[in-house]
Amino acid sequence: MNAALQAHGLGKKYGRRWALTDCDLEVPSGHVVGLVGPNGAGKSTLLNLSVGMLSPTTGSVEVLGQPAGTQQAKVGYVAQDTPTYARLSVADHLRLGAHLNPEWDDSLAQQRIQRLRLDPKQRAGKLSGGQRAQLALTLGLAKRPELLILDEPVAALDPLARREFLQDLMEAVAEQELSVVLSSHLVSDVERSCDYLVVLVDSRVQVNGEIDTLLATHHRLTGPRRTAKELPGDQYVVNESHTDRQSSFLIRTDRPILDPSWSVTQLTLEDLVLAYMGREVQSERPVLEVQR
Ligand SMILES: Nc1ncnc2c1ncn2[C@@H]1O[C@H](COP(=O)(O)OP(=O)(O)OP(=O)(O)O)[C@@H](O)[C@H]1O
After folding, report:
1. Is the pLDDT at 270 greater than 90, yes or no?
2. Where is the ABC transporter domain (predicted)?
């Protein structure tokens, strides 16, 4: 199966300013991928390049095995500002969706609009921010894409609407062969809905892999003070902190931790994301990748 997303040396420059530099990434199909990273990391730029809304200054990006922007019917995209046509009604948007998309699922679209209590006659410009986001998400889902790319899709939704949307998304993933890449600042949403994680910091993928595997292979070790050099070679140190007598390491390893002097704790996804986000940018290749 083709990768959902594949970027090589991808870069985008605006005037003299680089928004994304030399980004390498491969995301397999069949996952719900959470793309997280600090403000300005390049997430939106990467997603815009992936759908062909922007053209790269350097490098290349493919979606579903084809150059970005050539698979319009198979790729759904909801941009960060959930664009809609202000003067068109909700019903007009659905008609437009049906007209433009060969796989359009009208009953899904109508049911969703009904459930969300959106008035089909209301112009999109008169909807609230959250309702507009729901309309844009409905268009993305009803298109029945193979890959759905969502840039902070739930940012404008209230907590209940957020939960329902993520539920809808997971149902769509279960029912059809749908891969999803969604960027989010909310680790709890990523935890609830994603099975694959990409942490992007300053254009660099810091960690990339299935969430279950990442959680099973990362641990916090706490014990008598020592240096990272004293740890076994298979223990990759993500971060470390020390007091006079104690050391704490966040490590990644595929092997059992045999040293009985360590107290070993499992990490939450938030611990893991924050650890990679808080690190100095790692630009050395190869990027740390964990896959089954
Ligand atoms: N149109 C533009 N012109 C100039 N610089 C831009 C433009 N769009 C983005 N940038 C810059 O590129 C960098 C990456 O921005 P991008 O929006 O991709 O980050 P992001 O990870 O999506 O951030 P956020 O989490 O805040 O949405 C930032 O430094 C931003 O200021």
Report:
1. yes
2. 5-227
pLDDT more than 70, % of the chain: 95
Asked if residue 220 and residue 182 are part of one domain, the reply reads no
Burial of 194 (0-12, 13-18, 19+ CB in 10 A): buried
Say if CB 209 and CB 289 are below 8 A apart.
yes
**Ligand 1 atom 17, closest CA:** 44
Point out the domain boundary residue: 202, 227, 255: 202
Name the residue with the closest Cα to ligand 1, atom 24.
Answer: 39
- CA dihedral sign, ordered 73, 80, 287, 225: negative
Q: Are residues 218 and 197 in the same domain?
A: no
The answer, yes or no, to whether any atom of ligand 1 lies below 6 A from the CB of 44, is yes
What is this model's ipTM?
A: 0.96
Q: Is residue 278 part of a domain?
A: yes
* Ligand 1, atom 27, residue with closest C-alpha: 39
Q: Is the CB of 14 under 6 A from ligand 1?
A: yes
**Ligand 1 atom 1 nearest Cα:** 14
Q: For 98-148, write each residue's pLDDT tens digit.
A: 999 988 999 999 999 999 899 999 999 998 888 888 898 899 989 999 999
In which domain, by residue range, is 262 found? 212-290
196 and 222 housed in the same domain: no
